[in-house]
Design goal:
Elements: E1 4-11, H1 28-40, E2 43-49, H2 50-59, H3 68-74, E3 76-80, E4 92-95, H4 99-108, E5 113-117, H5 120-128, E6 134-140, E7 160-167, E8 173-179
Parallel strand pairs: 1-5, 1-6, 2-3, 2-5, 3-4
Antiparallel strand pairs: 6-8, 7-8
Length: about 180
């Protein structure tokens, strides 16, 4: 059974949308690259929502930001969409069916860890459906003030277990949590 892991950048007030607004270009960059490298090293596929795919497919093929550019350009991408007709950034497969069934089938297939980077709506749906195995956060010591949070309206509490927590001298926290089963 493949593992499904989400990695999100998050502010102290829980904002996960548009992290470019609260992620500074400072000494913490080295720490972010370390945590990012650890996460992507085990992933052989990525799950993206349509919006994220469209944004990233226009940026990453030409980008030189390592280690992520080489990773995202070479990995199998699965795009959740009922409206996308074709892809131009490969290798990519469109998932058109019910999200929970499509992802359950992916998890049951042969392969390594599947990562979700960004794609807040996809993470929200899969977390509520109980299909995410790990939530990984790089938490920045900043209050964003506005933006989407991971779950703004949960139907019921989702209990998480803190598996690992690392704090850096720059104030970042790298949190690995798993939903309680």
């Amino acid at each position: 059974m493949r593992k499904l892991v989400s990695l999100l950048f998050i502010s102290l007030d829980g904002v996960v949308e548009e992290p470019i607004k609260f992620v500074g270009r400072d000494a913490a960059a080295e720490d972010v690259l370390k945590f990012l490298g650890e996460t992507i090293a085990e992933q052989d596929a990525v799950l993206l929502g349509r919006k994220m795919y469209e944004e990233w497919s226009g940026f990453w093929p030409k980008a030189k930001l390592e280690p992520f550019a080489s990773f995202i350009n070479s990995r199998q991408k699965y795009v959740v969409s009922s409206t996308l007709n074709s892809t131009h950034w490969g290798p990519t497969r469109i998932l058109r069916g019910a999200l929970d069934r499509e992802v359950a089938a992916l998890k049951a297939s042969v392969g390594g860890t599947i990562g979700i980077h960004g794609s807040i709506s996809v993470v929200q749906s899969l977390l509520v459906a109980g299909l995410i195995d790990e939530l990984r956060f790089i938490q920045f010591p900043v209050v964003s003030g506005n933006g989407r949070r991971l779950l703004e309206e949960a139907s019921a509490p989702i209990r998480l277990h803190l598996d690992h927590a690392y704090k850096t001298p720059t104030g970042l926290q790298y949190l690995i949590l798993s939903p309680e089963k």
